[in-house]
Specification:
Number of helices: 13
CATH topology of the largest domain: Rossmann fold
Shape: globular
Low-confidence stretches: none
Mean pLDDT: 90
Distance between the termini: 31 Å
Radius of gyration: 24 Å
Oligomer: single chain
Number of strands: 19
CATH architecture of the largest domain: 3-Layer(aba) Sandwich
CATH class of the largest domain: Alpha Beta
Length: 401
């Protein structure tokens, strides 16, 4: 079965050792019925010869911005118009920086600027280069410009280091391409999602918060976008780049999150409350920094509004999914919250003691709904999010039919 029949893929290759993986990607794409054209930067040719990609794709490889063999010497326009998707794999740190800055000093960069079609990049670099603040800022800005970021993965690297920066394997990239062209299970669905912590001010320099990193919520947002949902992400303060394709609403306090959600809940089909919202806030935050004056002090705390319960109680409410992070009696507390707040589903996990949850990259969930349950085993938060969104899509479809 040719799952990518008649799809036109323009594959850009930059100068990284991971270029060898792209040869396998070309083979998989051609086997699936896609028509593939390959563009290589000058440095890419130091790692793999163009003849390799020519043999696998069945077409000549494009190398130069000024190519005498090109029709009307306009490859950067014709190829940009030709493709359905432009994927750069591997995408080096140098390439990502130039792409973000709008450089056009080689054929591949020019194509990225000239294309109206979706552009995806598969980062590949040393883990220290990936962690560099400049690289992180380029990636963040590219995501905001709707460039799809596929990867990187973590693991052993060619230089001997271990960490994030490896290009995704050819099969993973192929699956991403196939999913890009496949209708999602949440096509046309408006999904509202909260993520991250909230901060409740004590004075201008201090606040009450929690250990949520936002990683689970952001992974859910990305998984929902991949399934075709229109995602609005209401996020507390985190150190994460927003997933490509979401509408990001930044907030800080629980009240700000409440206001942002209530403005949008009535127009949403699904609401997922993944944020770790502070239950209490300081009754009267000090206007000036509180000075140390005694061995102890007391803060008067008042209860914050329950965002999830309020949304669930709306006359025209969305399909409501809650989260319960517990340190004990996970099932008991989750089922109680499901009933008490009149939810459609709840995803529960035990936090602490190496179980996943806050400040780590893995998680595991027990998902409950009226009359059913499903366990999602320990895996990366991206994989857990993918399985959870599949389950939510299934339950939402049942509830809507």
């Amino acid at each position: 079965m040719q799952t990518l029949g008649n799809k036109k893929i323009l594959l850009g290759i930059t100068g990284g050792i991971a270029a060898y993986k792209s040869a396998e990607l070309v083979r998989l794409l051609v086997k699936a019925g896609a028509e593939v054209r390959v563009v290589m930067t000058p440095s890419a040719q130091e790692f793999v010869q163009p003849l390799t990609y020519q043999a696998l794709s069945g077409h000549r490889v494009y190398l130069d911005l000024f190519d005498a063999e090109a029709d009307s010497a306009m490859d950067h326009i014709e190829l940009a118009r030709w493709c359905d998707l432009l994927l750069v794999a591997p995408a080096t740190a140098d390439f990502l920086g130039k792409l973000n800055a709008g450089y056009a000093d080689n054929l591949l960069l020019t194509l990225c600027l000239a294309s109206k079609q979706p552009v995806a990049v598969a980062p590949a670099m040393n883990q220290q280069m990936f962690a560099n603040p400049s690289t992180r800022e380029h990636i963040k800005q590219l995501a905001a410009k709707r460039v799809m970021l596929w990867g990187p993965a973590e693991g052993e690297q060619a230089c001997g280091d271990v960490g994030p920066g490896r290009m995704l394997e050819a099969q993973q990239l192929f699956d991403n391409i196939r999913q890009h062209f496949s209708p999602g299970r949440l096509d046309g669905v408006k999904l509202l999602l909260t993520a991250g912590p909230t901060r409740e001010a004590i004075d201008p320099v201090r606040y009450i918060s929690n250990r949520s990193s936002g990683k689970m919520g952001y992974a859910i947002a990305e998984a929902a976008v991949r399934q075709g949902a229109g995602v609005t992400l209401v996020s507390g303060p985190v150190s994460l780049a927003p997933p490509q394709g979401v509408e990001l609403v930044n907030v800080e306090s629980a009240q700000q999150m409440y206001d942002a959600v209530m403005q949008r809940a009535g127009e949403s089909d699904i609401f997922i409350a993944c944020a770790a919202v502070s239950d209490y806030r300081v009754d009267q935050a000090a206007q000036q920094k509180i000075k140390k004056s005694s061995d102890s002090m007391s803060l008067q705390l008042v209860l914050n509004a329950d965002i999830l319960a309020t949304v669930s109680a709306l006359d025209q409410r969305p399909f409501c999914v809650g989260f319960a992070a517990e340190t004990q009696d996970v099932e008991k507390y989750a089922l109680g919250k499901l009933e008490r707040k009149n939810l459609d589903m709840i995803a529960a996990n035990q936090v602490g003691d190496g179980n996943g949850g806050f400040e780590v990259d893995f998680n595991q969930l027990e998902v409950f709904w009226h009359g059913g349950r499903h366990a999602i085993g320990q895996a990366s938060k991206s994989e857990v999010a993918k399985q959870l969104i599949d389950l939510i899509a299934e339950r939402y479809t049942c509830a809507s039919s």
